[in-house]
Design a protein that fits this description.
Blueprint: H1 2-21, H2 25-47, H3 49-115
Helix pairs in contact: 2-3
Length: 116
């Protein structure tokens, strides 16, 4: 019961706010121009429904194309991530081998210095 009062209050407040804002002349003119533009567009599309259908088809095609492109990019990224997963252990092995080689070389140099 209280939520229906809440929504009624919201609607009444919105209508009251709209009416009060129309006391301003520039607001009235702006609202009137906007209504005339919308009415003109609606009348045009009622008389030419093929344009609406064509626009919807075109928009749907663009959306479909975008979704396909995003899907291809996601697939590409997933493939690259998989490649990285496969390569990472190999890179770790190479780095560890390189580290060991430097450590071994450093130890040999240290031993030679002690001998001298």
């Amino acid at each position: 019961m209280s939520s229906s009062k809440f929504w009624k209050g919201i609607i009444i407040g919105a209508v009251a706010g709209g009416v009060i804002s129309l006391f301003d002349r520039t607001t009235r003119i702006s609202v009137l121009e906007g209504c005339q533009k919308v009415t003109g567009k609606v009348n045009h599309y009622v008389k030419h429904p093929g344009e609406v259908v064509e626009y919807v088809k075109e928009s749907t095609g663009k959306i479909r194309s975008t979704i396909e492109e995003v899907g291809e990019e996601v697939t590409f990224i997933a493939e690259k991530i998989e490649e990285l997963r496969e390569i990472t252990p190999q890179v770790v092995d190479v780095v560890m081998d390189t580290k060991e080689a430097f450590v071994d070389q450093e130890q040999h140099v240290s031993e030679r210095e002690r001998e001298v």
